[in-house]
Amino acid sequence: MKSNVYMFLLGTMCLLLLSCGEEKLPKPRAMLRLNYPAPVYEDLDMDCSYTVKKNKMVQIKNAKYTRPCWYNMYYPDLKATVYLSHYEIKNNLDSLLRDAQNLTMEHHIKADGIKNKEHINEEEKVYGTLYIVSGNAASPYQFYVTDSIKHFVSGSVYFDARPNYDSILPAANYLQNDLMHFMETIQWKN
Predict the structure, then answer these.
(1) What is the pTM for the complete model shown?
(2) The domain that contains 72 carries what CATH number?
(3) Which UniProt keywords are listed (predicted)?
């Protein structure tokens, strides 16, 4: 009987010694790492009252509406579109600014936050704001640029996917740089 107890204790100790080791934990789910090519910019000279530099990956498409200088910049690799609209200022700058800001604020229901980056270039007479909408809002970016006398260009970014902030963040960051470049390089023709 004593030998059975000793055998049991010896077996238990061996089992404990063998089971002591590195604990196995499940690995976390991997996230897809998205890398996009460095942007290469070229002139975009539409039949509009301004010129701008655009990313070469962009495909220009006519807007759904047939208004002059309304077009879409489509990013096939990002599955995103920047919808651009040009308005001629006719004593309505306050109204255009209010509309641009209200369009951004419509996203506050789903947004975690809205920040803005102002752009001012006194020399070229370019004044604008980029609104950065974080969270699962439909549009992560809204912006406008104006000379405050004749021209007002507004833009909105939408992805061809259900809003999921974490999933679109790499593409959204890439687009933010392009939008800032757009605002920095726009020049009025007249």
Answers:
(1) 0.79
(2) 3.40.1000
(3) Lipoprotein
Q: Report yes or no on 15 lying in a domain.
A: no
Token pair for 124? 């070229």
Instruction: Please report where in the chains the tokens 């980029």 appear, as a residue.
Output: 130
Q: Let me know if residue 5 belongs to a domain.
A: no
- Domain span at residue 125 reads 41-188
User: What integer pLDDT is reported at residue 24 of this predicted model?
Assistant: 64
Place of tokens 């933010």: 176
Residue 3 forms part of a structural domain: no
Tally Cβ neighbours within 10 Å of residue 92.
Answer: 13
Q: Which residues of the chain have pLDDT under 50?
A: none
Residue 34: the pLDDT is 67
The per-residue DSSP string of 67-124 comes to -TT-EEEEETTTTEEEEEEEEE-SS-HHHHHHHHHHHHHGGGGTEEEEEEEEEEETTT
Please tell me the distance from the alpha carbon of residue 146 to that of residue 178, in angstroms, as a whole number: 18
- Residue 141 resides in a domain: yes
Q: Which CA distances in Å does 161 have to 12, 64, 136, 176? A: 57, 19, 11, 18
Could you give the number of structural domains in the chain?
Answer: 1
- The secondary structure of residue 56, as a DSSP letter, is T
pLDDT of 107 reads: 66
